[in-house]
Amino acid sequence: MLQVSKAQVPPATLLEIANLTKSFDGAKAVEDVSLHLREGIITTLVGPNGAGKTTLFNLITGHLRPTSGDIRWRGESIVGTAPWKIARLGVARTFQDLRLFSHMTVFENVLTVMEKSAWFWQAEAGSGAERRQRVHEILEITGLQHKVGVRADDLAYAERKFLSMARIMATRAKMWLLDEPASGLDPRSYERFVTLLRSEVRRGITICIIEHNLEIVVSISDRISFLDQGRLLADGEPEEILGNPELSSIYFGERNS
User: Fold this and answer.
1) Mind listing the domains of the chain with CATH numbers?
2) Predicted TM-score (pTM) of this structure
3) What confidence tens digit (pLDDT) does each residue in 182-225 have?
4) What is the C-alpha separation between 58 and 67, in angstroms, rounded?
5) Which of 73, 74, 101, 186 is the least buried, fewest Cβ under 10 Å from its Cβ?
6) Which residue, among 225, 84, 106, 123, has the nearest Cα to 165 in the 3D structure?
């Protein structure tokens, strides 16, 4: 793997992946991956289709169990921990298909995340009045304040994307795992999205994104981890990863046979 060094001390590790492997019927979807997701930055997972990026998210969130290796949250192993327990530790995730409650209103979609029965429930969620006030604050931040009573089904595509982000904000999770969260956004919505993420990072949120759009990768990444065929080929600063011709040839499908 390409090693990239920095002179300054890196941020502390929030989640550590150590020699992680996941096999399906003998085929390795993830192979011996070791990665540190560091506090207060945006790490982007890039690589061609089938590189193992979504499988890695599924392993982190407990939806898959690794064949070997370890995943440590704040130094403690979470391998074998139920997905809902990992969520309550402070690891929240979005999906490409958004998974909104289509017949619920915008307000209800966000409020459900804070209910005690929700996977992401946190003890400090507060009283019912405090939770409702928090929903209004989040909808203001995400630009959905005028859509409070609108069903998710009736939102425009970009609005659904921001509703997905509003739901993850309501979790109070310290780490966000975002699966292509900006795909399909128009330029104006994309600018709002980048501003939102940067604001949350300044507030102390740690973000890991799966992204294919190089424009988004360049503009948003503090660090890039490059995967291919289940292996981590490089991990470092964006300019060094994106400027590597060997990695570029793999990303754009020009690898040597």
Assistant:
1) 11-90+174-257 (3.40.50.300), 98-173 (no CATH)
2) 0.88
3) 888 898 998 999 999 999 999 999 999 998 888 788 888 999 99
4) 13
5) 186
6) 106
